[in-house]
Amino acid sequence: MKYFLHPQAQEEMEQSIIFYKKQQAGLEKRFIEAAEDAINRVCRNPLLYRKIDDDVRKCRLLHFPYAIIFRRKAPHIEIIAVMHLRKLPNYWQSRK
Predict the structure, then answer these.
(1) Is position 92 within any domain?
(2) What CATH number corresponds to the domain at position 37?
(3) Are residues 77 and 43 in contact, defined by beta-carbon separation less than 8 angstroms?
(4) Tens digit of pLDDT for each residue in 19-39?
(5) What CA–CA distances, in Å, run from 69 to 13, 44, 52, 64?
(6) Which residue(s) pair with 16 in the sheet?
(7) Going by C-beta distance under 8 Å and a sequence separation of 6 or more, which residues neighbour residue 85?
(8) pTM: predicted TM-score of the whole model, two decimal places
């Protein structure tokens, strides 16, 4: 299944990459790999992940405090947010 990122989710991804790049050399690459892995898992089996709202689900990234917030919009997956799990938990709801 194909996916697309909400423009604000794209911005969150880019800001997270910049943050991790400043923290430690190569850490941003590990973050990108973890995000891509989560997105691939979502695309393979979106119904596997827990609902957090009507049609919205959450998939956690491995080794990072982030989650992919998404919904199925046939024939695609819309990634609504790349959410830091320790910050404002429901900020993405205005994007629905």
Answers:
(1) no
(2) 3.30.2310.20
(3) yes
(4) 999 999 999 999 999 999 999
(5) 12, 15, 9, 15
(6) none
(7) 60, 65, 66, 67
(8) 0.90
CA dist 45 and 12 (Å) reads 23
Has residue 56 been placed in a domain? yes
Domain that holds residue 62: 2-87
Residue whose entry in the numeric block shows the structure tokens 């429901």: 90
Checking if the pLDDT of 83 tops 70, the result is yes
Question: Domain count of the chain?
Answer: 1
Quote the crossing angle between the two packed helices 7-23 and 27-44, to the nearest 10°.
Answer: 150
Give counts: helices (H), strands (E), the chain. 2, 4
